[in-house]
Queue: 3 jobs
Job 1
Amino acid sequence: MNYILHETRDYDAFKTYSGNRNINPRKVRALLKSFRERHYPVPIIVDQQMRVLDGQHRLEASRVGEFPVTFLKLAADVVPTQVIRQLNADQHAYNLPDHLKLFADDGREHYVRFRGLYERYDKMLEEAGIPRRHGPYRIIFSSMLGLLCGRDGVEGKALLRHAPKPWDQGNTSVTLKLTALFREGDMEMNPAKGIATLDYLARLLEVLPRQRVNGAWTRKEYAHLKTREYLCSLHYLLHYRNEHVENENESFDPEVFLEQAKYYPRKLLRQDIQPKKWTDALGRVEEIYNHGRGKRPYTYLVSV
């Protein structure tokens, strides 16, 4: 198929496609500097409605620097989300939040619901006094992806054998890997267990004390409890471990752990040596679970 390149200075002729990434001012400045040194007419890609599918930063830099815009208009039968995903595969790769925006803005049901739940629990952590560190959300994206979209058949086996990445197991050659499914637009929600784990995290934070910092009451010292290591260990204990324990003394009682956290909150404070694996966090949970319980049988949570 032959395409014709067009050139214009009518910047307002172009429209934004909602599923694309947000404009990064730093990238625009870098492009503008490059354009002023030597302007190469690298075309932007638009659909029949003049919505920019690729090259939004080049368009913005051209607008600011008043450079002409070279563009290529695709055929009417193209699927915008597919074009965006393919064009970015060989460039600065879309990360997982970029894919969420792309498919949620495209109206895909599971992605829309995923974003709603992500925002709901981010607000929950904010109200609990947990600060945001990096990125738009307080929980690492891959952790939320595993919690809300995990596949029981894969996840359960991986957790029970203490696999290092239980939420992202699978054969990538047939796109069974969870992150691969997400990028392809084929992710489906499976949120029941994940929602239960996140609700339990909320209950855990509620029993922990707040600290006054700069006029605000926060639980900043407990922010590590929302990391993937602790979320994974809690998920394992809440949903998988007890089904494979023969001795009742070895089972995990979530109410006992909440009680321990309430009476021994300092045991949950961040330590100098942080867990490198989720099973390290599981060891910390076991230590707290058994702390000060007197003559009650010692419960081994790390072993199956």
Note: The longest strand covers residues 69-73.
Job 2
Amino acid sequence: MRHTLSILVENRFGELSRIVGLFSARGYNIESLTVAETLDPKISRMTLVTAGNDQTIEQITRQLEKQIRVIEAVDMTGFLHIEREMALINVSAEAGPARQEVVSLAGIFRAKVVDVSSDGIIVEATGDWAKVSALIELLKPLGIREIVRTGTVAITRLSERNAAQDVVQEIDEEMTV
């Protein structure tokens, strides 16, 4: 099963290679990886997608949390969350029916045409992994020349955060009684 992990780490050199090394040393594959600073420039968020059963992912998460510079590691799969990735897809499409088919498919998937030449189109698609993958599969027969994909980024839904805050508040209230 596909799992999305959100990992907060100290923003220091070498941290990315330490995390990736942890995965490769244990034989786990990373399907997608994005890293960027958070609002606090001292902290970065890694969003990592990997495959495995629940027990394996739980073990990985525990191992990540034992790392010195890891602040938090969460399997987002267990929470209501929003995931997005972006792809730039260079498609062969000369003027005429082939080009119109690419433009139509882009419209159906709410993708944008970001560049056009006499023999091709570059389409920008944003959405969850399944949506971007579905568009790519439909464009393959038309002649994809190149694909560039970002990794997945994920954030918990506001409703999930409110529910978690309610639980914490209830626990606090119980402890003060």
Note: Strands lie at 2-10, 30-37, 43-51, 70-75, 81-92, 112-117, 120-127, 144-149, 153-156.
Job 3
Amino acid sequence: MPQQQDIINQVVDRVNDFNRRIRDLEEKIRNLSARVNTLDDTLMNKTSSNKDDIQEVEDRMGEMSDRIANIEVDVKNINREKRKYVTSQELEEVENYMDLMNPINSSFMTESEVEEMIEDKLEEIAEEKKQRGSRDQNPDRTTS
């Protein structure tokens, strides 16, 4: 019987060892399960937070798109209004015309002054013709 007792003791030791190992494995499984649950909760929180952030970005993008559309409309209105105004080049042209027409800076001639000037010029031309005619009749004269 001692041999049976040894066998029984060995079996009991093995069963106790198996029980201890099973408890260790069960503890490890509980720890792993707790870690998985913690990771799952963290992942869910992060996913929710990311969804909120993405929604906020989408909302802001929508607002920005609306603001850009409003700015485009404003720019078109400004350009339309800008066409109504005078450019600096056009303003300079008007200033030049005004300077030309300014009676203080410019001198205008009266009709009688113009007629007198024409008559003087006609007399000069007639005088030149006479001088040429007299030279043609006197070939002895040399021109200087």
Note: The two ends are 173 Å apart (CA to CA).
